[in-house]
Design goal:
This protein is of the alpha+beta class. Helices cover 55% and strands 18% of the residues. It has a three-stranded antiparallel sheet.
Length: 101
């Protein structure tokens, strides 16, 4: 039995909504500098929280702090990618969709 285009569209819309919900519900945490900078990011790669240990500010080394923030945010983004690929892999039936995640 073949699905008509409307059924396929409805399925795609439901899957899209489920993916968006999973992305909103996913939260990862990453840190750098041995915990000097810690960030939280959701599955949509929106930065939710940045925590900087007071000692990092007291040192006055702004360039190092900038590097630590960059490293923590990049690590969080990698974790989001990995988490979303794992979570959505089964849902998408193993389809290879380059650029989606």
């Amino acid at each position: 039995m073949e699905l008509n285009p409307r059924d396929l569209l409805a399925q795609a819309q439901r899957a899209s909504q489920e993916i968006q919900e999973k992305m909103r519900a996913t939260v990862v945490e990453a840190s750098s500098g041995g915990g000097t900078v810690t960030v939280k990011m959701n599955g949509q790669k929106q930065l939710l929280n940045v925590k900087i240990e007071p000692e990092a500010v007291k040192s006055g080394d702004v360039e190092m702090l900038q590097d630590l923030i960059t490293a923590a945010v990049n690590e969080a983004a990698r974790k989001v990618d990995s988490t979303m690929q794992s979570a959505l892999g089964g849902m998408l039936g193993g389809m290879n969709l380059p650029g989606l995640l």
